[in-house]
Each structure stands twice: as C-alpha cells, then as structure tokens.
C-alpha cells in the first residue's frame, strides 16, 4: 500500500480522496446477482451476449464495456446495442465524441479522439485495468464526473507516473485534450497506451 499512499498524497485534493480505500466501492458479491471477480485470475467478469466473460483474458469481440451501479460489468458489440442496453438515446452518425461518455462516468477509449473500444467506470475506488483487460490500451479519456480521478502508469522502468484527470469544468479539466498522445508523461514520452490503473474519487 505504500505506493498507493504516495499516489494519494500526489493527488493532493484532500479528504475526498483520502476517504477512498481499495476495494471499498465493491458491491458485496452476496448481494449481487452477477459474479464480480474470477478467483483464479483476479479478472473481472462481464456479462456479454448472455454469458460471462473474464475481461482479463480478453474482450472476446466486445467493443464497449460499462461498469454498472452495482459494480458488475456489461459489455456490448456495438454502439447501438450499448445505447439500447444502457437506456441512452439513439445517437446520430457522428458517434466518436466526448458526448459518448455519460455524466458521472470516467471513460477510456483504445484509440485517439474517442474512438475504438471503450470502457466506462462509475464506482469510486481503484481499478487495476489488467483485471478489466484494458491495461496499456487507452489513447483517449474523459473524466465526466464531479471529482478528480487519477490515472496511473506503473509498469515501466521509471516507477509510477500519475496524471490527474480533473472533473469537467474544474481547474484540471483535461476533457478538451484530443488524445493522450498530447499529454506528456515524463520519462520516455506520452501517456499513449500506458495507463495501468485508475482511482475514481467519490
Ligand atoms: Ca490503444
Ligand atoms: Ca504502464
């Protein structure tokens, strides 16, 4: 936990962050209709086309995965299925946009400019992206929440890098960035395909 404590200090926005502890946001599996974690891999299960897949072992063709209010994950084949499944209004042909990240969510996209496979988180807490099959994939992000989030790059030769993703409209609002390519990380370059872990604060 020492690394996490340093990260918490680095985020520097006070009690709201310090109140978050690893695992605290998880729903009690006994109260959930869906299994959350594969005990053999630590991977997160997702419901996808009526079956459960372990996201840490690959997305099996899913394009959009969404953390639900009970911390379970649901994945979809495409934008139309996603919008129908999540109760969102149908979108026009211009589907690659910040507006594809709903309010109160932090979204990561595999490609630049909010394109490609996408994962959405809404529950406060740490998210080890390896468990979600999304480590070192993100090239775009949008924190469409009311609180700051942390994006972490752990697995490199220079230790951990931390990028604050401020809430929309705040002083560290990064949502206007076109791509993580433009976000200098220090060390050996940009944040493209580097993020391993998230911290969403409540
Ligand atoms: Ca990528
Ligand atoms: Ca990394």
From TrEMBL:
<keyword id="KW-0732">Signal</keyword>
<feature type="signal peptide">
    <location>
        <begin position="1"/>
        <end position="27"/>
    </location>
</feature>
<protein>
    <recommendedName>
        <fullName>Peptidase inhibitor family I36</fullName>
    </recommendedName>
</protein>
<dbReference type="Pfam" id="PF03995">
    <property type="entry name" value="Inhibitor_I36"/>
</dbReference>
